[in-house]
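so my prof wants the structure for this chain in the tokens format not the other one, which i didnt know existed until like an hour ago. anyway here's the sequence
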Amino acid sequence: MGVLAIVRKDNKLQGETQFTEDIAAEKAKYRKIVRAGIAKWISDFQKGLIEIKNVDDLKKLIELDLKLQREDP
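here's what i got, hopefully its the right format
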């Protein structure tokens, strides 16, 4: 394997690593938003602003949070 092939392979690995890190950072941002939404829902519920007739919004937020935790970057 020549020097040029090694450099190309190294650059490709660095690019893949950066891409994976970028996706992980974006997922972390999304999880913060989802967790804030969950906290707001719970706060509104505790204040009596939400009656438990339909918890679909909370369910969707929790499912999204769990999905973001499970997925690989």
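also thought this was worth mentioning. Residues 8 and 14 are 10 Å apart (CA to CA).
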